[in-house]
Amino acid sequence: MRCNPIAVAWLFAVALGCAANSKRGPAPSPAGKVESMSKRAERSDADSMSSPTVTSSAPGSDTYASEAAAAPPSYAPAPEPKAAQAERAPSAGAPSTTDARARYARADVQLSEARRELDVATSQRDCASACRALDSMERAVLHVCELAQSADERKTCASAEDQVGAARQRVRSACGDCPKKSR
Amino acid sequence: MAWLSKARSLHHLADVAEEKDAIGNAIAPLEQLVTGTRPAGEPQEVAEVLADTYARLAELRTRVGDYERAERDVESGLLLAKDRTYFRGHLFEVRGLVFDKMSQALEKSGKPQEARVAREKAMRASIESVNLQDEVIKNTLGDAGSVDKRDD
Fold first, then answer.
1. How much is the ipTM here?
2. Residue A84 burial by CB count (10 A; 0-12/13-18/19+): exposed, middle or buried?
3. Residue to test with chain B: of A123, A139, A175, most B Cβ within 10 A
4. DSSP A92
5. Distance from CA of A161 to the nearest CA of B (A)
6. Number of cross-chain residue pairs from A and B with Cβ atoms under 8 Å apart
7. Do A174 and B129 make contact, defined as CB atoms within 8 angstroms?
8. CA dist., res. B91 & res. B55, Å (int)
């Protein structure tokens, strides 16, 4: 029987391909693939913060590079990711500086916003505390004046009323009107 | 913190009972709170909640004429609220109420001398509360509410 040389060459090529695939291990499960994709997306986001040049590299190249790094030593190392190459490249210095400034500006805006929110929250909390203290003070003054009988006690009542009046003014000037009491 | 959540629930039970004027039923969950296990280290927030609970217990006991136990609750609360805070001021405010009601009860029962002593204690406690809360407001607002700042 005569062999067809084209068929023999084809079979040889197929056999070589199978051998190469078996060294890479089993194909990833769909779930693993999804995870890998989501991780990549996360990493891409993170990298875009630390190194925007990643986005210019081929999609997925960094993922495969990390898989290669985790593989046994017998496995041939994958080519270095373009992102890493770009980071080391002398030309990468200029855009990184610009991006770093942009990131700094963004962070500065975020910090200012956070400070403003903290100030508002602190002021709201302080006003709630001041209003609560004012309520208590007003009830106590009411007591003092209800109890006052002698001239001295009535003086004390008047003085306490002045004190609460000043406190009320202080709270109003800092916080506006206090909310109505629930209890 | 689980303890704070428990405290909120017990105060809520007291609210429900108080709305129905069932003072005894309002006192029971609050007593459970002050006599129950406290978190280790007793953080400041826990001490404040307990001090406030003692103040509420004292108010409730005053409503049913149990002045002596009410005053003991105030004492217990003051041991927890030693700093010059709203909580200490509120406890003095409640003490004023306790002695005021006690004075009225003593007057009615024909004990004018004891009534006068109780009334003086009520006055002193209420004035102390006014001074404490005034201080709390000044410390809390700082320059924010001062007259000088408003006039600028």
1. 0.89
2. middle
3. A139
4. G
5. 9
6. 98
7. no
8. 6
Neighbours of B23 (CB within 10 A): 18
Cβ within 8 Å of residue A72, ≥6 positions away: none
Minimum distance, in Å, between the CA of residue A128 and any CA atom of chain B: 10
Q: Crossing angle for the helix pair A93-147 and B112-141, nearest 10 degrees?
A: 160
Q: Mind listing the pLDDT tens digit for each residue in A17-74?
A: 444 444 444 343 333 333 333 343 344 343 333 333 333 333 333 433 343 333 334 4
The overall pTM is greater than 0.80:
no
Residue B130 and residue B145: Cα distance in Å, rounded? 18
A144 CB neighbours in chain B (<8 A) are 96, 123, 126-127, 130
Sequence length of chain B is 152
Residues of A in contact with B127 (CB under 8 A): 140, 144, 156, 160
